[in-house]
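Q: How would the structure tokens look for this protein?
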Amino acid sequence: MDASHRTLLKEYGMLHGLTPAEQRVLELAPWIGSSLICETLGKTDPTVSCQAAAILAKTGEDHLKDVVISALAYARAVEIP
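A: Here is the predicted structure in token form.
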């Protein structure tokens, strides 16, 4: 993920009140599965699952991929490069 995508997801996460831990999960979710997210972050599966559930609850989406799609739509709406 390049810097512009990270910036976009970070801004979208801040808009929805994501914690830093939730933000890290969101940044990895479009690219790798939950097992690799756990390994990359040094977290257990229940921890990452809880953080993913919190992301969905805070954004009102059903799947993490939908959060990323919403973030892209948000970027277009507010003209984030």
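The chain has one domain: 3-78.

The chain has a mean pLDDT of 90.

Upvote if useful.
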